[in-house]
Amino acid sequence: MQHNSLNSDLFKLGSYINGEWITKGGDTFNITNPADESLVCTLHNATAQDAEAAVAAAYAAMPAWRAKTAKQRAQIMRRWFELCMQHQDELAAILTAEQGKPLAEAKGEIAYGSSYLEWYGEEAKRVYGDTIPGASRDSRIIVVKEPVGVVAAITPWNFPNAMLARKVAPAVAAGCAFIVKAAGETPLSALALAELGTRAGLPPGIFNVIATNRSREVGAVLTGDKRVAKFTFTGSTEVGKTLLAQCATTVKKTSMELGGNAPFIVFNDADIDEAVKGAMTSKYRNAGQTCVCTNRILAQKEIYAEFAEKLTAAVAALSVGAGTNPNVDIGPLINAKASISVAEMVESAIADGATATIGGNKSEVGPCFYPPTVLTNVTSQMRLSTEEIFGPVAPIIEFETEQEAIEIANNTRVGLAAYLYSRDIGLIWRVSEALEFGMVGINEGAISNEMAPFGGVKESGMGREGSKYGLDDYLEIKYLCMGGLTS
Ligand code: SIN
After folding, report:
1. What does residue 140 show for φ and ψ, rounded to 5 degrees?
2. What angle do CA 3, 283, 388 make, to 5 degrees?
């Protein structure tokens, strides 16, 4: 199947290292379109040696980049943002071809990812230090912030543009050079972003992209090389723990955006129609494949039936199909294995007493698809309550008291996002403060944007992405003790 995105000059077929496209020599790997499992393209498959070359290039390029003024870096980032928005349709077409999400969502992701380039270009100019009264009359304490050093990243397939943009943007804004190993399923969006960065004026070696399916080999270089000062990862908690252990040998600064198990709590006094709207947004975005997607809906006893009925009606209106079809709301999952895993969780819940009010069966659209599903009579012991579903399935658990909701919500080792719906201001404060999560959506299902600090607690990771706080993850504090001032 021929994709229009193949005609774009943003469509690249190999890694981008030190300002050069590596497309020849060695072996290759395939990118397939999850909508129909057709071949999108065959790419040069980068090796550990390519990753070492990228680290060397970044290390050599960084001094000149950090020596630029923040304003000079900001001007390049502004151009980069503008170019991405000018090429939004092309970037979205590439993203849909490799990842599957509906084109409208892909366009939204390009705008979302680009917003980090814009925001951090602006923030680059606001990296302020401090002066602190000294320990003696003739001394002063000065605090300056410096770029952390070469940054290496591994980014996921669920947001091939935005999860990368929100790492590379603060890194280059701070004055760091950057290397990413993009997800093996979806490297094309990362390569297109690099092309636009170069057109905007990023010097060779500042943004290097490794396209490969040799994740372990390349990951070992990026986490083990002494020249890499900081490592950042978005992906599963399990892989994050392995990468963290690898980073320990060279004591890298790390930030980790790992798995979630978001509770979505609807109290008796909530505006039920608004809660349904919020649940639709937070559950079915990207076919349920985000770390902040609602994983467990907790509905209070009095409104449980009404909420389940209204949610089922809203889900019935969703259409499923290839992302290139403009009428589609839910695209495929990333591959057939993912849809089998979701199906197994649903089947096991049904075997244990859950009821599918809609969906819950095999999709007729194709092997990578799973139908949007709502399950009632779910308990917090079922597998889909304890594990990340990463699919379009909404399990609804009943609870009676505020305390019970808090206990169910917090009964997990991860703590990324949580949501709650209520009109009682006292309850909202009490529950928000009791929730052991990094982010809480209050009467709001869409919480991600470049202005806000995205990140989790417990085994959901460490560090924040976005907002003024996100820049700190790419900076080191240096304290200058100035003495001899009065003699
Ligand atoms: C994620 O799934 O890791 C992030 C989703 C988002 O940025 O909202």
Report:
1. -135, 150
2. 95
Question: Best mutation site among 101, 116, 163 for ligand 1, i.e. most ligand atoms within 8 A of its Cβ?
Answer: 163
234 and 160 Cβ atoms separated by less than 8 Å: no
**6 confidence band (pLDDT: 50, 70, 90):** low
Q: Which residues contact 201 (CB under 8 A, 6 or more apart)?
A: 75, 76, 79, 80
Residue pointed to by tokens 């390569």? 191
Model confidence band, residue 4 (pLDDT cutoffs 50, 70, 90): low
Q: Which of 161, 198, 209 is nearest to 17 (CA)?
A: 209
Closest CA to 476 of 150, 115, 212: 150
Residue closest via CA to ligand 1's atom 7 equals 448
Residue type, 376: T
- Cα–Cα distance for residue pair 116/35, rounded to 1 Å: 29
* Of 301, 286, 395, 389, nearest in space to 334 by CA: 286
Counted residue by residue, the chain has a size of 487
**Three-class SS state of 117:** helix
Active site residue 291: yes
Residues 144-175: b if buried by 16+ CB within 10 A, e if exposed: ebebbbbbbbbbbbbbbbbbbbbbbbbbbbbb
* Per-residue model confidence as pLDDT tens digits over 342-356: 999 999 999 999 999
- First vs last C-alpha separation in the chain: 79
How is residue 434 written in tokens?
Answer: 């009791």
Three-state SS string across 287-310, please? HHCCCCCEEEEEEEHHHHHHHHHH
Residues with CB under 6 A from ligand 1: 158-159, 163, 234, 257, 290-292, 448, 454
- CB 372, CB 315: distance < 8 Å: yes
E strands, 324-380, are: 355-358, 373-378
Q: Which residues pair with 303 in a beta bridge?
A: none
H/E element, 428 = helix 425-434
